[in-house]
Amino acid sequence: MDPLSRLFGSAARLKLLRLFLFNDDTAFSSADAAFRAKVSKEAARKEISVLSAAGVIRKRAGGQGVAYTASRKFPHYDALQQFLRTTTNLSDADLVNTLKKAGSLRLVVLSGLFTGAIETKVDLLVVGDKLEDKPLEAAVRTLEAELGRELCFASFSTEEFRYRMGVYDRLIRDVMDYPKRIILDKIGLK
């Protein structure tokens, strides 16, 4: 079990804390929060109740039903948010292992959210052979649940990536010209 999960009581509570504090301008229903954090609806309802009672999140009733959002009035809001930001990280090996379920990976580049670069349009660039869309989307959703943030990603076959590099495709340039981390390179970019 992750040490922070032990500190915060459960992995579900930690995932939900990240979801609410990293998306503090968004309101989530308990079902939506459970889906995004990849926890059961029962666990989400229980943990949302605890977080609401603690004052970390607040209930908002609206036309769509009850939704919850981070409470900026929580006395330690900024400190808790900063703590979670600095302690939320996935190892490169964990990222690659999660993405391997989608096919044969040739290149994985982290940008945007992972590097602090604001201008980029893509947080994750995946290049591979025989990549399947549904497993790739499921892998990205798993990473989003761990990180507590939505990821913008792009995927290409090796052939298409080489072509786009050759014609100086704008999306590829946006990733390659700004701060990035290449965590897997079987193409030979480094």
Question: What string, H for helix and E for strand, traces the elements in order?
Answer: HHHHEEHHEEHEHHE
* Spatial order of strands in the largest sheet: 5-4-3-6
- The number of distinct β-strands equals 6
Structural class, by secondary structure, is alpha+beta
Point out poorly predicted stretches. Answer: none
What name does CATH use for the topology of the largest domain? Beta Polymerase, domain 2
Can you give the helix content as a percent range? 40-55%
Query: Whole-number radius of gyration?
Result: 18 Å
* Total number of distinct structural domains: 2
User: Number of helical runs?
Assistant: 9
Global outline? elongated
The major β-sheet equals: 4 strands, mixed
CATH class of the largest domain: Alpha Beta
In terms of DSSP E residues, the strand content is: 15-25%
Do you know the CATH architecture of the largest domain? 2-Layer Sandwich
Give the overall average pLDDT: 88
Distance between the termini: 35 Å
